[in-house]
């Protein structure tokens, strides 16, 4: 259904009679929608009340694209149209009519990486975003999107979810592992900011897992848990007698109605080790800073149905995709006032946070005579160091000079000097072209014996603890040149035994020494 983009207006007007003629002053309206497994866009010309189509494009969603949110799919449709219809977008003002807050999302600096990238790419065109009303050409865009795509919708395939809960005297947490039909894994470690028993943590795991997998676009779910109580109550084999368990069970049945098909099965803990490790991770203070996970925190129990209805809140957890680093406790204290339960750690964070400030979610370090220094996480450290060290303006300076340069550029992290030394030591050009000192580490000493085994030194050691054969002494001879050692244990010292040792161990083996 696609047609090639003409290189000039004359070729465009002569190509097909069905095309509508345009001039450089014509306002072109582009309508886009995204439904099912494809996104589509229709470029139309507005003449009074008439909407005449100029061009239409469509794209099948592949790989991770079907899991995009509706607003991201809409932005993807706009990007596809802008790339394929570049001459139109460059020579005309294009008005995008949509019922989504696309304008605010593209202008949001805290949006995802792909949205920021798309916003920069679209900024070169004169695009105007307006609210969509009743449009005749919208039916054409809907039709293209519906008829384009694969009948085997990936959202209709079965998703797999492994959940586990962990409850300790310190805090509780849940671990969730979601496996998509394309074998992509999503790992979540959710800290429960409220007291919860082991059974309550298991219920929280399955409930929060249902929310997350539904947000990912799953319609058919096969969930696994090691809790016999949760699975049996969900299947109706066990009766929920406690009031909390009744609320959790009612909430679970409510969440499962959102799916076309939902199965919950009990399996041994050995088969859900990944979810078990995430649950233990969320319920402890020992976080692995090098592991990339999605850390969330649940502020209140999911089973508190009355509170949710009163507050009108559907989401009970907040968080972001991050790696726990040295900035995490400081940001949580400055932004949310959250401190560890350990009084010593809380005091350290309070004292340390006085030298930092949080601006628009970014952490900065205060200085006495310098501007604010932006605090970097470990995943950005190597890039900044390499850019300063060997970038377009880099001069492969030493480690201390490199650390000071990064500081003058407005960046800070606690291990700047250590990381700079590590980078310089691994830099191949620095190692090849460095000035090395070939002087010995210590002053050279004149050898008393220039030849091996020409001069020996002898000594005796004893008394020693008695060994086999009543041997309590040791006679030792060392060569001055090679430091070769000859030793033999003796029961008693005597002239004959010493002469025998010299004859057998020195003269017979190395020849007659000079001294």
UniProtKB/TrEMBL annotation:
Integrase catalytic domain location is 446-515
* Superkingdom, taxonomy of origin: Eukaryota
Q: Which UniProt keywords apply?
A: Endonuclease, Hydrolase, Nuclease, Nucleotidyltransferase, RNA-directed DNA polymerase, Transferase
Q: Domain RNase H type-1, which positions? A: 155-284
Q: Which InterPro entries match?
A: DNA/RNA_pol_sf, Integrase_cat-core, Integrase_H2C2, RNaseH-like_sf, RNaseH_domain, RNaseH_sf, RT_RNaseH
Note one Pfam family from the annotation.
Integrase_H2C2
Looking at the keywords, is Transferase present? yes
- Which CDD domains does its entry note? RNase_HI_like (cd09279)
> What GO terms describe the biological role, i.e. biological process, of this protein?
DNA integration
Establish whether keyword Nucleotidyltransferase is in the entry: yes
Extract the PROSITE patterns matched here: INTEGRASE, RNASE_H_1
Q: Name one GO molecular function term.
A: nucleic acid binding
Instruction: State what protein this is by name.
Output: Uncharacterized protein
């Amino acid at each position: 259904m696609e047609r090639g983009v003409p290189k000039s207006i004359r070729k465009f007007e002569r190509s097909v009679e069905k095309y509508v003629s345009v001039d450089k002053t014509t306002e072109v309206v582009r309508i886009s929608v995204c439904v099912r497994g494809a996104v589509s866009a229709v470029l139309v010309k507005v003449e009074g009340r008439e909407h005449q189509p100029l061009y239409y494009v469509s794209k099948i969603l592949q790989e991770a694209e079907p899991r995009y949110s509706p607003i991201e799919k809409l932005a993807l449709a706009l990007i596809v149209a802008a790339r394929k219809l570049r001459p139109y977008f460059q020579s005309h003002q294009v008005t995008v009519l949509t019922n989504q807050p696309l304008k605010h999302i593209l202008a949001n600096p805290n949006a995802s990486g792909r949205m920021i990238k798309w916003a920069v790419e679209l900024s070169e065109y004169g695009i105007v975003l307006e609210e969509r009303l009743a449009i005749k050409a919208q039916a054409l865009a809907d039709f293209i999107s519906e008829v384009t795509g694969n009948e085997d919708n990936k959202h209709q395939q079965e998703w797999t979810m492994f959940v586990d809960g962990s409850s300790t005297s310190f805090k509780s947490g849940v671990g969730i592992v979601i496996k998509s039909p394309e074998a992509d894994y999503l790992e979540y470690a959710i800290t429960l900011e409220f007291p919860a028993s082991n059974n309550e943590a298991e219920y929280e795991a399955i409930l929060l897992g249902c929310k997350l997998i539904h947000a990912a676009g799953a319609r058919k779910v096969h969930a696994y848990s090691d809790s016999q109580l949760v699975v049996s109550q969900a299947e109706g084999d066990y009766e929920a007698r406690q009031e909390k368990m009744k609320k959790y069970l009612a909430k679970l049945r409510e969440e499962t109605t959102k799916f076309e098909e939902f199965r919950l099965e009990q399996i041994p803990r050995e088969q859900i080790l990944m979810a078990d490790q995430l649950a233990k991770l969320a319920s402890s203070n020992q976080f692995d800073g090098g592991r990339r996970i999605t850390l969330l925190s649940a502020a209140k129990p999911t089973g508190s149905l009355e509170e949710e209805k009163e507050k009108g809140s559907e989401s009970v957890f907040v968080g972001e995709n991050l790696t726990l680093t040295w900035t995490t406790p400081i940001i949580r204290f400055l932004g949310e006032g959250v401190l560890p339960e350990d009084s010593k750690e809380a005091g350290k964070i309070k004292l340390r946070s006085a030298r930092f400030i949080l601006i628009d979610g970014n952490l900065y370090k205060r200085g006495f005579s310098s501007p604010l220094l932006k605090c970097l996480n470990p995943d950005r450290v190597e890039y900044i160091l390499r850019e300063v060290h060997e970038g377009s303006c880099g001069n492969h300076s030493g480690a201390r000079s490199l650390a000071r340069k990064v500081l003058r550029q407005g960046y800070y992290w606690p291990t700047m000097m250590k990381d700079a030394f590590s980078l310089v030591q691994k830099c191949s050009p620095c190692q090849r072209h460095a000035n090395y000192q070939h002087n010995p580490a210590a002053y050279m000493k004149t050898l008393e014996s220039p030849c091996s085994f020409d001069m020996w030194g002898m000594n005796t050691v004893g008394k020693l603890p008695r060994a086999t054969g009543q041997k309590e002494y040791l006679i030792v001879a060392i060569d001055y040149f090679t430091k070769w050692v000859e030793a033999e244990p003796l029961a008693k010292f005597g002239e004959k035994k010493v002469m025998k040792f010299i004859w057998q161990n020195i003269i017979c083996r190395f020849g007659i020494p000079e001294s």
